[in-house]
Amino acid sequence: MAPVRAIINDNLYGSIPVNEIEYMIIQTPVFNRLHYIKQLGSTYLVYPGAKHSRFEHSLGVMHLATKILDNIIDSIDATEFHELFTPEAFQKLSSIYSSSREYRNRFSNYIEFLRAFLVQSIRLAGLLHDIGHYPHSHVVEEALGYRGLHEKHSIEIILKWRELDQILEETTIYLDNSSYTGITREHIAAILMNTGEREEFIENNSNYVPMLTPWGYDLLHKIISETFDADRLDYLRRDALHTGMVYGYIDIDRIIQNTHTIRSGRSYIICYDVKALPALEDMIDARIKMYKLVYFHHKSVVLAEIVKRMLERAIEYEEKGIKIFPRETVKSILLDKYVETVINDPYRITDEVLIRIAKYILNNESIDDNTKYYAKAFIDRRLLPFTVFKREEELTDFIKKTINSKVSQEPNSLRKHLDIIINELKKLEDRDYDYKGNTLKIMVVPVKYHGVHGSQILIKTHIGISNLDEVSSFIKWVKKRYENYSYAYIYAYLVDENTMINMKYSKSNREELYRIVREIISDYIKSFIKGIV
Fold first, then answer.
1. Using CA atoms, how far apart are residues 474 and 283, in angstroms rounded to an integer?
2. How many angstroms separate the CA atoms of 218 and 188, rounded?
3. Helical residues (DSSP H) of 366-506, grouped into ranges
4. How far is Cα 283 from Cα 277, in angstroms, rounded to an integer?
5. 281, pLDDT greater than 90
6. How much of the chain, in percent, has pLDDT values that exceed 90?
7. What's domain 4-295's superfamily in CATH?
8. Using one digit for the tens of pLDDT, what is the confidence trace for 376-407?
């Protein structure tokens, strides 16, 4: 709603204009903390260029969310536009427009003014959607046992961040500091909430008067969080650029230009014109390949896993009364006082906090050697566990050769039992093995694809609206291939770090280690497989 204050040059989109509100938010320490949170965590140790941060990703999401909303609004009939707003909000905003010469000069009619309100709303939601993100991507969340915790914390930070409130009060969403337009912390947070959270929030906060109807908020929420949302469109392109992958290139403009809404009762549902089908298929294909080659690269997975295990062990020690930090606990920093610390002392919780935790573990005589190994391997890449099976095909082929021929000849049989087999193989981690007088440990790390929900994505064709998997045979195949599909990486390491480092330079010793570990796994599979298949 405000004029451009500055232009930010982005390596994906070129110029990203920001207005006074956005400029002031970007200047804050709370937002600048995102400079020091890498988008892909420790993946830069595999792909050296992957040092991009949540900061530029947040700007990218704001930029793409604006373009998506602009296209969606164009597909809504002007006579129905007011139905996105509550009656109170529509009346208030219409009155503000009518009484303001400034707004009447800037916007040709009150519909354009309402449109600008929605655009400013989605821009701020996109800009702040990751404001509460943890260091090292999602690893910390998993160590704490709460997947998706950063989304909850982002909303909490928005609601408790007084400086954000001051910025919204002092900039031009207020007219002469008197006529209030309703873009508040609560309004931005409501966009980022899912339907259930938002309903509960509104019910428990009687002082908050929603600006949009439930379907209005749902529509804006889907622009930030949906299958082909601004978040995914940006991170796939951005991650591909910084890792040097050609597979993540997506025709974003084609998708956005063909994003529309259809009326369903009182609500609006996002759909895509069939002209965007090749681009949509490319995005799904790019996502799968980025998982295979970047997010689920065997070294990326083990880096994330050792960080997760290091944090889990640190918290376990603290619960037993053994301190990691001298004056506070890991859990209090990353969970109990996380929101408070991000707001009041944001630079204390960046990627660097994990290095601090690792160093405290290494300097604590009460910590066991295995936990210290995780900490040391995180700091010193040379100590990363060896990957015994690097690709899903290697593990599945190995299992097929180990178990009976009947299962080997039935393609779907192994997949049906794979989760059970992987869970059984996890028990190998509880044992210590001897390798020439050194303690040998095995790690089994399951990975799982998110799949494609083609029946929830609507495509507009010349004969009407169809589900994506009905229109695209490729998507139908992908859904069948990757829905609930999982496999595992298996790693091995020697707790003694000097022996591990020496083995890095001895191919014959590594091959001997791989052979021994494969024999252990083969014998173990044979011991339990008869009761499964």
1. 12
2. 12
3. 369-379, 392-402, 405-408, 411-425, 468-471, 473-482, 497-504
4. 10
5. yes
6. 62
7. Hypothetical protein af1432 (1.10.3210.10)
8. 999 998 899 999 998 888 888 898 888 865 45
Single-letter amino acid, residue 299:
K
pLDDT at 182: 79
Question: What is the per-residue pLDDT across 159-168, written as a single tens digit (0 to 9) for each?
Answer: 999 999 889 8
What are the tokens at 505? 């330079």
Nearest C-alpha neighbor of 37 from the set 290, 304, 311, 347: 347
Confirm if 475 and 246 have CB atoms less than 8 A apart: no
Query: Exposed, middle or buried by CB within 10 Å (0-12, 13-18, 19+), for 182?
Result: buried
Can you tell me the distance from the alpha carbon of 130 to that of 137, in angstroms, rounded to the nearest whole number? 10
List of residues 6+ apart from 460 with CB closer than 8 A: 260, 262, 271, 272, 273, 274
- Spell out a b/e string for 142-167, using b for 16 or more CB atoms within 10 Å of the CB, else e: bbbeeeebbbbbbbbbbbebeebeeb
CA distances from 221 to 194, 195, 255, 270 (A): 7, 9, 18, 11
Q: Is residue 142 within a helix (H) or strand (E), and if so which, with residue range?
A: helix 139-144
* 447 strand-pairing partners: 487
Q: How far is CA 273 from CA 38, 66, 134, 258, in A?
A: 35, 19, 36, 5
Which tokens is 213 given? 């109807």
Position of tokens 């993540």? Answer: 248
How many whole angstroms separate alpha carbon 444 and alpha carbon 431?
12
Q: Which of 128, 46, 140 is nearest to 349 (CA)?
A: 140
Catalogue the E-assigned strands of 45-149. none
Q: State which H helix or E strand residue 103 sits in.
A: helix 101-106
Phi, psi (degrees; rounded to nearest 5) at 339:
-60, -45
Question: Domain-by-domain residue ranges, the chain?
Answer: 4-295, 385-449+485-533
pTM of the model: 0.93
Give CA separation, 289 vs 15, 292, 422, 450, in Å: 29, 5, 23, 13
Residues with Cβ < 8 Å from 69, sequence gap 6 or more? 118, 119, 122, 220, 223
Q: What share of the chain is helix, strand, coil (3-state, %, to 5)?
A: 65, 15, 25
The one-letter amino acid code at 290 reads M
Contact 499, 373 (CB under 8 A): no
**461 vs 276: CA distance, rounded Å:** 11
* Phi, psi for 320 (deg, rounded to 5): -90, 0
Describe the crossing of helices 162-170 and 185-192 by its angle, rounded to 10 degrees. 110
